[in-house]
Amino acid sequence: MDSAIRRRSQGGLFEGLYRVIMRRNSVYVTFVIAGAFLGERAVDYGVHRLWEYNNVGKRYEDIPVLGQRQSEE
């Protein structure tokens, strides 16, 4: 009895991941699709912020008087 309890509690990280995520195919596919979606969003956000950081002062939004006429005063 004691060895059965010990065996059940010594699962480890991969054993726990298997039990939670990969045991049923529907849960595994949902996990992969959600992970791909969230990963894509995280990479897109990171690349966008890095691009903005490297191009400060060179963007269209940074030029204050672009397209405005000078006043004739």
TrEMBL record:
Keywords noted in UniProt: Electron transport, Membrane, Mitochondrion, Mitochondrion inner membrane, Respiratory chain, Transmembrane, Transmembrane helix, Transport
SUPFAM superfamilies associated with the record: Subunit X (non-heme 7 kDa protein) of cytochrome bc1 complex (Ubiquinol-cytochrome c reductase)
GO biological process: mitochondrial electron transport, ubiquinol to cytochrome c
Topology within the bilayer: Single-pass membrane protein
Top-level taxon of origin: Eukaryota
Protein name from the UniProt record: Complex III subunit 9
Family of this protein: Belongs to the UQCR10/QCR9 family.
GO CC terms, sorted: mitochondrial inner membrane; respiratory chain complex III
Lineage: Eukaryota, Viridiplantae, Streptophyta, Embryophyta, Tracheophyta
Entries under InterPro entries matching the protein: QCR9, QCR9_sf
Compartments reported by the entry: Mitochondrion inner membrane
Gene source species: Hibiscus trionum (Flower of an hour)
Function of the molecule: Component of the ubiquinol-cytochrome c oxidoreductase, a multisubunit transmembrane complex that is part of the mitochondrial electron transport chain which drives oxidative phosphorylation. The complex plays an important role in the uptake of multiple carbon sources present in different host niches.
Subunit and partners: Component of the ubiquinol-cytochrome c oxidoreductase (cytochrome b-c1 complex, complex III, CIII), a multisubunit enzyme composed of 3 respiratory subunits cytochrome b, cytochrome c1 and Rieske protein, 2 core protein subunits, and additional low-molecular weight protein subunits.
Any Pfam family the entry gives: UCR_UQCRX_QCR9
